[in-house]
Amino acid sequence: MNKFSNADRAEVLTQALPFIKRYNGKVVVVKYGGNAMIDETLKAQVMEDVVLLWLVGVKIVLLHGGGPEISDMMKKMGKESVFVDGLRVTDKETVDIVQMVLAGKINKTLVNFLETHGGTAIGVSGMDGRLIEASIKDERLGYVGEIEKINIKTVTDLLEKGYIPVISTVGCDKEGNCYNINADTAAAHIAGALNAERLIMMTDVEGILEDKNKPFSLIPEITVSDAEKLMQSGIISSGMIPKVECCIEALQQGVKNVVIMDGRVPHSILMELLTNEGAGTLIKKDEENE
Prior knowledge:
By secondary structure, the protein is an alpha/beta fold. It has helices at about 5-25, 35-40, 40-55, 65-75, 90-115, 155-160, 185-195, 225-235, 240-250, 270-275, and strands spanning about 25-30, 60-65, 85, 85-90, 120-125, 130-135, 145-150, 165-170, 170, 180, 200-205, 220-225, 255-260, 280-285.
């Protein structure tokens, strides 16, 4: 038996109206990956959220990674995944696998999901329109790219024509070499190039925690200065450090606010954008708190 009446549903929509007005016509970039991408039920819910926001006038850009699926494909092909400082060592054969998995299987699967749920989406890679120009980051890592330039016109053209751009994070150089690009880094640069209203970083933790062993110790909001102090004190540590550094980079490049949130929570995107409470940890510039 459904416990929500029609009046309850109407009230929910009414409460969401101010937030819909706020984001109507604004660009929101969603970096999508981790367990929320692997679990098919969660994947469907994320796609529903993206389509709903698109239908009410939010200019949604969906950017995805796919590390676990790349590792699975490498294992099937008899290659071992090797990491240095958290980055995948990417030789010529591995970068071909990365391109196949990210720009092919994952990207087109997500486009199909969005279309199935009522959206109009087009998938592109960082190689299309030379969206992500890159160079070798570290010789030890092979074809892992350092972003040199973002050519954002491909994305803005799609947004102006009413599409949901779905971006896979492979880049290229002027010689035509393909590079594996860290998805968090790519999200920061692309959101910055779009002057996005918000960048949402979906991950597999609740956000920034005061105590990583206590999931209920979520810090709901911090400034860049706060984040730097938390990194110095060790509260922000290990894998969360590069993620927070990407968030700071995005803010420096012109993004209004960045949120790190748990992509495993159903409809977390809607909770973040369409409610007062939000979801995860909001990171903002220092001057906004003065």
